[in-house]
Design brief:
The complex is a heterodimer of chains A (82) and B (200). Chain A is mostly helical and 82 residues long. Helices cover 78% and strands 0% of the residues of chain A. Chain A has one domain. The N and C termini of chain A lie far apart (110 Å). Chain B folds into two domains: 92 residues, Rna Polymerase Sigma Factor, Chain: A (Orthogonal Bundle), CATH 1.10.1740.10; 93 residues, Winged helix-like DNA-binding domain superfamily/Winged helix DNA-binding domain (Arc Repressor Mutant, subunit A). In chain B, 72% of the residues lie in helices and 0% in strands. Chain B is elongated. Chain B starts with 11 loop residues before the first helix and ends with a helix. In chain B, 34% of the residues are buried. The N terminus of chain B is likely disordered. The chains are: A mainly alpha (82), B mainly alpha (200). At the A-B interface, α3 and α4 of A face α1, α2, α5, α6 and α8 of B.
């Protein structure tokens, strides 16, 4: 008997309303699960890594002597001209 | 030449500092030129021209400001003014780019790098350069905007469009490559990225 009363008291109607509200909340878009978003992000990151690698590959090449020769000639020309 | 006239208008130490910084930027200028020209020899010519233009304009450069962005801007302007000079140039660039894309310089190079070059070649030039400056050159959007002489928002949208397009191209393998099936490029890129991240 008293158990029933406690049960009734322990389950206020307000809580049930709250539960119903949570159930009715819009669920995340099923077409874009977060796993797919993570996957897309991962792929973009991979492309980014590649891109930097492609650029750095040229950066890390030895600079042809020609570059420094040209600059050295230009530099000596300016100091001669004064 | 007497002692009086030997004194440069600008102090020698300024020139020395400028030259030192410029020399350090040569590898980056070469890399940027390569992405614009495709053909390595033409790219080095462009990078040399840009280097000399920067040297000649050194008096107008404010030491302490971003020399990398400044030289990249010079190189880019040089590239487009040369392009304007000849209407056939863009066609030649395209042909050169295709040649370079087909011929892999280093036979040991991972497959995916070549796929990426092909994918990049399919992007509109403005998107490609924005993505390269921000994604590979390490420039902030603001710096890239300065280099490309456009608004920051424009760079942002070009970069994001380039990223999406490149992803799509690599994903469905819509570039020309015989024997490779759709998605192979992306798989190779993912595998390499994973390998690189574990190495680092």
């Amino acid at each position: 008997m008293s158990d029933d009363e406690d049960a009734i008291r322990g389950r206020p109607p307000r809580k049930r309303n709250a539960e119903r509200m949570i159930e009715n909340m819009p669920s995340p878009d099923p077409r874009k699960p977060s796993a797919a978003l993570d996957e897309a992000r991962l792929r973009q990151q991979a492309i980014g890594v590649r891109l930097r690698q492609m650029f750095d590959e040229v950066v890390n090449e030895d600079v042809p002597d020609e570059f420094l020769d040209i600059l050295r000639r230009a530099d000596s020309k300016t100091s001669e001209k004064g | 030449m007497d002692a009086e006239s030997a004194r440069p208008s600008r102090s020698g130490t300024d020139d020395e500092g400028f030259k030192r910084e410029l020399v350090q930027l040569i590898p980056h200028l070469r890399a940027f030129a390569r992405t614009l020209c495709g053909d390595p020899a033409a790219a080095d010519d462009l990078a040399q021209d840009a280097m000399m233009k920067a040297w000649d304009a050194r008096a107008s450069f404010q030491m302490g400001t971003n020399m990398k962005a400044w030289t990249f801007m010079i190189l880019r302007n040089q590239f487009y003014s040369e392009k304007r000079r000849s209407w056939r140039q863009s066609q030649l660039d395209q042909e050169a780019a295709e040649r370079t894309l087909v011929a892999v310089d280093d036979p040991e190079a991972p497959v995916a790098l070549d796929e990426l070059r092909q994918g990049l070649a399919m992007l509109p030039a403005e998107q490609r350069e924005a993505l390269i400056l921000v994604g590979a050159g390490g420039f902030a959007y603001e710096e890239a905007a300065e280099i490309c002489d456009c608004a920051v928002g424009t760079v942002k949208s070009r970069v994001s469009r380039a990223r999406r397009a490149l992803h799509a191209i690599l994903e469905d393998g819509s570039y020309d490559r015989d024997g490779a099936s759709a998605g192979d490029a992306m798989r190779a890129i993912l595998a390499d990225a994973e390998r690189l991240s574990t190495v680092r």
